[in-house]
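hiii, so i know i said id send this last week but things got crazy w the move. better late than never?? heres the sequnce for the chain we talked about at the cafe, plus the structure i predicted for it. fair warning i was half asleep when i ran it
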Amino acid sequence: MTDIYAPPDTPLNILHQDHQILLVDKPAGLLSVPGKGPHLADCLITRIQMAFPEALLVHRLDRDTSGVMVFALTSSAQRHLGLQFENRQTRKTYVARVWGHVAEKTGTVDLPLIVDWPNRPLQKVDHETGKSAITDWRVQRYEETATRIRLYPKTGRSHQLRVHMREIGHPILGDPFYATGPARDAPRLMLHSESLRLRHPDGGKGLTFRAPAPF
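okay and structure toks below
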């Protein structure tokens, strides 16, 4: 499971900035927050705080996932946004390329997840003690050996989309944890947070922020 952390040296891609919130397009391969040890210090929030020292964390994306992330610029905005995520009031859409041809056009995966302790940070399905995890999906188009699919998580469990796709027999291409064989051979994890809908902390207006998938 060990690999060398070599985050991309790309400039910040700011999607939106105002007095309360900052939206950025996170590149694949960059941690959201620092890992353990100085070799894992480079991360998105550290880079953001060089330009916006007041920036505060609200949520995370996996290192290998790209796409829309929101940061708070005040403590009140952080609380407001944190509650939206906690109460499932945000709406997230992901784009993925998964192995094989998904037979149905739409569907839902409802499989509870729990950390696989001996193999952390991997997650696994556990019907006894797992936490509820639900993902809706819709096929966009078929490729030669893959399917391009939109994913709509109803919950926000760690590795949820990655495990759910593997469990229905269509792991996300390039997934170093859950894909095997030729499905792992993509240049990156083919998972991108395409859009995030939230309520602005100042006034509660509903806003949607988007970043097109780079694959």
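btw The first strand starts at residue 14 and ends at 17. thought thatd interest u
miss u guys!!
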